[in-house]
Amino acid sequence: MKVVIAQMKHETNTFSPVPTPLARFATGTPMPPEGDEAYAAYKGTGSGISAFIDLAEAAGAQIEIPIAAAAWPSGPVEDAAFEHIASRICQAVARGCDAVLLDLHGAMVTQTYEDGEGELLRRIRAIAPKVPIGVALDMHTNMYPGMVDAATVIAGYQTYPHIDVYETGQRAGRAIFAMLAGQARPAMAWGNKPMLPHVMRQGSDDSPNKELQARCREMERQGALSASLFVGFPNADIHNAGLSAVVVTDNDPALARRLTDELLDLAWAAREKFVYKLEPLADSLARAKKLAQDIEPGSGPVVLLDHSDNCASGGTMDTMTVLGGILDAGLEDVAAFAVYDPAAVQQMIAAGVGSTVTLSLGGKLPMPSIGLSGQPRSVTGRVKLISDGRFRNRGPMARGEMNDMGPTVVLDTGKVEIVILSDHIEPHDLAAFQAVGIDPSRKRFVMLKSRVHWRAGLKPLARAVVECAGTGVCTSDYELLAFKNVRRPIYPLDPL
Ligand SMILES: [Zn+2]
User: Separation of 134 CA from ligand 1 center, angstroms?
Assistant: First the structure.
């Protein structure tokens, strides 16, 4: 038995000015890893592809990994990058196999295709009309019929922050191996609702997603091969952006249909709870200052979430609105993670550790989709530390996977320690702070460019959380996003 296992992951923010060439799909290497290199990068980690490898090895299958390509979210994927990744996978399938297991995101938009995953799956189906295809998807999938038509089994994450990525690979992979063993006949149904849940209201520890995901798990305990409720990724102006569901049963299409519709009806009934209400930034910072007064110094920080500029939602990670507000408000004992500014990093490396520099920090990338030019901020501080920016996640999210922030510097203004990096990463793991010598648990305030994933590794430290509405292309203010292609009417853009 031979199994082709591959990864192609990108969440596309169509409003993002951050480019997505092939190099963005690699970590610490110029190209995404293939074959033995891909195996070594992911075997034993918390990834979906790692679960596929374990299942295939347990089944005694021969494994081919043509490519493992994962990029931080950004603008539409360059055609050359998509063609490179898709052709590697299709060539492997064309060499012959008994099953294909794919670790995909489910919200990839390329320069040519609105539904990147659907296009990949359509090509694989054309080469291998009968081969079973198992697909693990992110909860932020924007589902298209092309994906469901071509796949045999689909399973999506049931947690946000995504701490069940490995388990999702198991759910997709087990159904395929059961099918190969003649023990299951997967029957799949899907559907969507015209709703665009705000990302800030999608956390699976919060209602209503908590209850929706619990119902998915219950359906699986009661016999469904997989049950997935996708909250969707709204910062994508494409026809099928938004919430959907997929249920796979063993040889019972009517049950799959009924369970899918039940999930969709539950989500629709809870749609108002998925709407996020913004607080003005000045109010948030004033509230944060008050909250900190009631907290014993050193017992844990007030977390300030700069949620409009999260690089794991396609943010440039260089808008200075929230950090500027923190500096203006005079907050003290702050760690800020992080500002993307490779030029500033080079300037500080040239100056050297211990020297005092004045930088025009951040604000380098214009954001034409939301009508903003970059707004750098002049900052003076001491270069405290220079790092190569490489670290391995502790988990629970993306456990064991390598990260590469590129050359990274900590600039200390006296009141704020600002981490400035050369490659995007979202802070969701304590190891990111350890890599730059900061103990966030001892800080009075910690600013994070993050929305929900920070909770995975850092929530236990937080004494209070204040969501700060800054600027950026992953804004939760839909008024700022010019939706032209998403299907209408859709809630809450339209009153339904
Ligand atoms: Zn996601």
Answer: 19
Q: What is the DSSP letter of 322?
A: H
Cα 231 to ligand 1 centre (Å):
9
Span from the CA of 74 to the centroid of ligand 1 (angstroms): 13
Distance 299 CA to ligand 1 centre (A): 31
Tell me the C-alpha distance between 231 and 388, whole Å: 36
Tell me the C-alpha distance between 309 and 376, whole Å.
14
User: Rounded CA gap, 448 and 333, in Å?
Assistant: 14
CA of 313 to the centre of ligand 1 (A): 8
What is the Å distance from ligand 1's center to 156 Cα?
A: 10
Distance 138 CA to ligand 1 centre (A): 5
pLDDT (0 to 100) of residue 496: 83
Q: What is the pLDDT averaged over residues 116-138?
A: 98
- The domains located in the chain, with CATH, are 2-272 (3.40.50.2300), 281-475 (no CATH)
**Backbone dihedral angles phi then psi of residue 165, each to the nearest 5 degrees:** -65, -45
Half-sphere exposure of 273 (CA within 13 A, CB side): 16
Tokens coding 169: 């690979």
- Residue 164 pLDDT: 98
- Kindly report, residue by residue over 220-258, the tens digit of the pLDDT: 999 999 999 999 999 999 999 999 999 999 999 999 999
- Residue 178, burial from CB neighbour count under 10 angstroms (0-12, 13-18, 19+): middle
Give the residue-averaged pLDDT of 191-197.
98
Kindly give the distance from the C-alpha atom of residue 139 to the centroid of ligand 1, in angstroms, as a whole number.
5
Q: How far is the CA of 5 from the centre of ligand 1 (A)?
A: 21
Query: What's the 160 CA to ligand 1 centre distance in angstroms?
Result: 7
- The 10s digit of each residue's pLDDT in 467-495 is 999 999 999 999 999 999 999 999 999 98
CA of 295 to the centre of ligand 1 (A): 33
Q: What is the dihedral of CA 357, 362, 384, 439, to 10 degrees?
A: 160
Give the amino acid at 4.
V
pTM value > 0.90 = yes
pLDDT in tens, 169-187: 999 999 999 999 999 999 9
Distance 333 CA to ligand 1 centre (A): 31
